[in-house]
Structure formats: structure tokens, C-alpha cells
Amino acid sequence: MDKVLKFQEENKQRFLDELFELLKIPSISADSAYFKDLLHCADTIAENFKQSGLDKVQVCKTNGNPVVYGEKIVSSSLPTVLIYGHYDVQPADPLDLWYSDPFKPVIKKTNIHPEGAIFARGSADDKGQWFMHVKALESLIKTDSLPCNVKVIIEGEEEVGSVNLEEFLKANIKKLSCDIILISDTHIFSNKVPTVTTGLRGLSYVEVMVEGPNRDLHSGLYGGAVPNPINILSKMIASLIDENGKITIKGFYDNVVELSKKDREEINKLPFDEESFKKSIGLRGTEGEAGYNSFERTSIRPTLDVNGIWGGYIGEGSKTVIPSKAYAKISMRLVPNQNSNEITRLFTEYFISIAPESVKVTVTPHHGGNGYVLPTSDPGYIAAKKAMEKTFETETLPYRTGGSIPIVTLFEEILGAKSVLMGFGLDSDAIHSPNEHYGLFNFYKGIETIPYFLQYYVESKKS
Fold it and tell me: Under a CB-based contact definition with an 8 Å cutoff, are residues 369 and 332 in contact?
């Protein structure tokens, strides 16, 4: 491994410069105005794949944004690791809250990252994280040290639900066949307490509309006699969670598996600090489901949150109207065993049932996915733990996080392989928010660690 590490050290600045070029591309999948940028980003990735030594590089068309593919096959007798990432990013709005242009990456020092962090949209989610894999592979390939076969797919629709990935996987099962899947789209507990993610929550995401009168009405002439969609929607949303923080949708908890006392003790070994948690996001207090601490609420329990709500007049000054319609976007984070489609159905039926007869309610499902658990006895987890402990030089713990990566269960269903979630970001990296950033320490630590994972995984398959 010495020559691999030497190659990495000699090329550190080039690796960073190449990442900066990717971060400059506004590959926003939620807005069709950026479609050409997405295509440009895919082409740029393909060229980097080739330069890094991958073979059979392709920009594969889908019904949406393309998937970039590359591989390096060493021997049919060796195991194959499939690496996944996504090049699309979240919209950068609100722009006025960014310290600098979100698509002009800069390095700034922070209290958490005294050596500097890369500030740019996509730096942590997910360009900076999957790019670590490409550079780790380059350091192995160009030093003739690659211990196994590797395949890499980087898609462009993860931030909008990976709507075309299932079709792509089914059409390319043979091409993508592998023993295990390696993903860096998660975070570690801290730079001093490295972790491997063993659990993800699922997701059900819907949009609701409450419709009252056939047009906006004068609030003086009609107020008090007609239904106000915003008032009604607010009451309906407020009724979805009771005074104990429990979700009131009938059947919502039917398939939720309660963790044993032993399992809860195990996950609480991580040094979560409630005061630091509140301080990091500017809160005086926390809230949530009774009987669970904040760490458990954000990892092993399901949730319901309003992500956006609008209707009526929101411009400057006043306009006294009763709006015709009111809208909200609602996400539900699910735990393993909860089925996303079933939860969406239960929500739809329940939300319509609690609406007064004076309004019409429409629920439009968006995207979703099921939760995921990786057993700590899995060879992939063991190899990841060993690799992290090698480079961080301290114990690595299992970690259940609150985020969702719906494609993980999709991979297992279609390709029949488990996914190892070996991310290197931090939960303070402000992903999906203004001033997203990714520590230089984390970026380079990932490049250093990934070759060890491949080595230890191969060794585990031989034993």
C-alpha cells in the first residue's frame, strides 16, 4: 500500500483541482433549465473516468439524465465491487444566505475544519464523496495495485428520486453484476469518532392541495361565511402529530419494529451531546416523540414534517383575500419494515378523511423508498470497519442515521447485493442548505481509506 499512498500524496492538489471543476457545474436536477449543465457534468465525469484508468467508459442515456459508467476488470476469479454516486445537486436557493457563490468553490477554515473545508453546492452531497472513489481507484490502477474488479455508476437524478434508475438497473443486470455495492453518500459521527452507517430511514414524500372557493375572495365581503383553505390546511396538518409527538395516521406504526433495550443501548454508545446538538443549529430546545432522546428520534423512529406551505397573497404590502387554494409538501421518514407505498396510501386516505366537506383535498405522491439495515456480521461492514480503523487509528462504531437513500433497497432487490454505506462527511456539512461544505481532511481521508476497504474485502472473500 505504500506506493498507493505515495501516489495519493503526490497528486493531492490535482485531485482537488479536478473536483473544483466538477463543483463549478450547476448540475441541478430539480430544475429543467439546468439540463444542459447536467449533460456537461456527465461528459466531464466520463473524461475523468478515462483519465483515471477506468475502461469501457460510457455516458448511458435514460429517459431523464444520463448515467456515467466505467469499470476495471482484473480477473473473473476476483470479487467485484460496484461503486455508486450521484452528480446531480440540490438547488442552491436562497442564494443570499451563501457566504460565496455556490458554484465557485472556495476553501475556508472553520472551527470543525481548521485545515479548511470546500464550500460549494455538491461538495459533500455527493460530488466530493464519490470523487474520492474515482481518485482512490486511480491511485490503485496507476500503481498496479487494484485488488479486485470494480464497476462505477454515477447517476444524475438522486435528488429527484432516481426516477429512471430502476429501469436502468433492470436493463443492465449483467453489466452491473457484483458481489457488493459501496456508497459514500452518508456521514460519520465525527472526525474523532468514525462510523459506518448500518441503517437508513425510508421516505414517503407527498404534496397536498386544499381547494375552497372557485377564486380568491374579498376577505371583508366573504370572511366568516366561506372556508379558508389556508386555515383548514393548517388545522389538518397540526392534527397529524399529537401532544406526545406521535403521528396520528391510522396504521402508521403497524410495521414499526421496536428496538430491544440492548439495541438501544448499543446505538447510544455514540457520544451524542444534546447541548452541542442544539447549539449547532441555534436552538434553545428540542422536541419530538415522547420516550426517545434526540439521537433516537433522528435515527430509529419515523417522523412527519412539513417541508413547505403556501397559498394566497405573499407579496409586498397587503391584499385582503381568502385564497382559493392552499398547498403543502410533506415528507415522512420511515424506519425499516415500513413500506413507502403503503405509508403513502395510508396518509392519502387519512388526510382526505379528516378534511371538512366544505373543501376538496388532493394528495399527489412524489418519490419515496424503504429503509435499510446492514448487519454488522456482513463481510462488507467488517471490511469497512477495519479500513476506517486503519486510517483513523481509533475504534469505528456502527451508526444508524436519519437520512434516506431509496436506491439502496432497489439495488438489493434488482442486483441481489448488499450496500456498504461508508461515507466521510459530517452532519454539520450543511447539505441541502446554504453554505454546504466538505472538509479537506474528510476528502483526503476517504481517498486514503477506500483502497484498504477493497483490500480487506478481498481478503474476507478468500477466507
Answer: no
